[in-house]
Prior knowledge:
Blueprint: H1 13-29, H2 36-46, H3 52-58, E1 67-72, E2 81-85, E3 93-97, H4 101-117, E4 122-127, H5 131-143, E5 150-154, H6 169-172, H7 175-186, H8 197-213, H9 236-245, H10 250-262, H11 277-301, H12 311-316, E6 320-325, H13 333-352, E7 361-364, H14 375-385, E8 390-393, E9 407-412, E10 419-425, E11 429-434
Parallel strand pairs: 3-8, 3-9, 4-6, 4-7, 5-6, 7-8
Antiparallel strand pairs: 1-2, 9-10, 10-11
Amino acid sequence: MSDHTLGIPVRDLEAARKRAYALKDKADELGYKIVLAHTYELLGTAWGFKNWATVKAQLVKSPVVGDIQIGVVDDEPGAAAVRLPLSDCMNHVEIVSSADRHATQDFVLATASSLIRNGNGMFFAFTGAQKECITEVRSAATAAGREHDVRIINLNPLHRERKGWNLDIYELLGRDDLAALLFESMLGDFGKGDPLYDHRIRSAKFLTLALAALSELPQEHRYRVSARSLPEHLSLEALCDLHRDGPLPASVCEPLIDYLYLQGIDLSENRDYKPDRVANEAHRFYQEALRQAAGTHADMQKSALALNFDIAEAVREGKIIVALLPHPDDMDDASATFVRSLMRTIGRAIVETKPEGNVFATVLDGADGYLRDGDSGQFLETAKAANSPAFVSSQRPLSLPGLRGSAAIHVRKGLGRPLECVLVTDRERTEFVFRP
Length: 436
């Protein structure tokens, strides 16, 4: 019998992923270092499709099986556990409260502790300067014999530990994601009433593509872009010198040439050309916006890690990744774009790796503060694709699809702990208490 599904030589998504891993392993063996995302694209092209998304849309995903423990029915000894089927929460689990925010945060921390005790891998994003978040996670991990599983990404300038390694998310992002980060970081400086708005948007896209291309240069290359080196590339004179000094790979040089040409600079005709006042003025608009963003990003990445680790590897091994984020009120546009890029990096790691052991879960506290502009749906879609349930706490409902495949947990005001809760899925309603 033929093993083809609409021209694709596998039947389901899991089989296609195994092909992608095998292709990447062979490329690595032959000395060609490529990221997994590019491996998927190559696989889709080899099968005759435009891109990997087209292939993925036509594959059958294995049914979601299993459940996750979230509490107990009552507070009596030996009470039955409340188990949430994964099929009921693949879109997200919304956590809401009729009490104050402290009760919701108690539930969020108790959820994280429960997942740790049950052996789940976890990405836990927590907003604000609450030191007890890290303390409670580490205590729960130690009690469960998992003290070596905890990984901290601390992006909150109000609560920094002295020990740690610097995180350079520019090194973690692929070319397209880095371009998106830099472009988003400038959007707050563009005014739609400006008669040059359309031209500036187009020019900014070309510039960020040119800068992101520099991330593909070898680690030791003098022009490779990073959080620290980005300011060196921001002046138009520096970009012209970059093109003159060469030689750069065509994939890096061509976006740079396109941007310079858009500013009226053609170095192929006159390599000694110096940008004139008009060209410099046109470029300075983006230069100032990016300089501000680069400073914010560099500050957020300073001593951001409590342990030096690879995000994708930590997800695959089912580690406990805790991201301590600034409070939304303390974030400007540049810091918000950086946080969203971190979320996309985590989401990609979840969907591209197969976490070992128990179900890998996500717990997002204060999600409405940093998952903006459609990013909530984008991040949660990546978790859904990997059968990774996401518990989402927010002060207002997220703009997401309907309840089917989702769940809601209502935390009611009690006289203390344990917390009184109601779990609602598209199939049933369960009252329970939550003991940390």
